[in-house]
């Protein structure tokens, strides 16, 4: 799981550098590129939080002792992840001269798309 997240972070870094260069060479679309970059990094942060929650859930499932431990519920952090996405869109709404709103919303879908693309491209041939 961690190596998959490392590859997503690496892809986000490459995408961010490409977006920075595109913003330099195409200043008319700078707000679009910066909005997509904001959404991308919010998406990466959401993916990181989900990875931590999944690892905690896996550790709880593998280390279960029902007789001695109270049954503590483990959640997936949906509220915190959707709050981060809403916060990013709010930043884009409050600063439209810096971030394009639609590009920010599109950037939030970066990590799930990267996970899907990575699984599709690097699947093992069995």
UniProtKB/TrEMBL annotation:
| Transmembrane portions of the chain | 40-62, 74-93, 99-121
The entry's keywords: Cell membrane, Membrane, Transmembrane, Transmembrane helix
Membrane topology per the record? Multi-pass membrane protein
| InterPro entries in alphabetical order | ATP_synth_I (IPR005598), ATP_synth_I_Bacilli (IPR039072)
Q: Which domain of life is it from?
A: Bacteria
One Pfam annotation reads ATP-synt_I
Q: Where in the cell is it found?
A: Cell membrane
Record keywords: Transferase included?
A: no
Q: What is its main location?
A: membrane
Keyword Flavoprotein recorded: no
Q: What is this protein called?
A: ATP synthase subunit I
Give the species. Answer: Paenibacillus filicis
Lineage of source species:
Bacteria, Bacillati, Bacillota, Bacilli, Bacillales
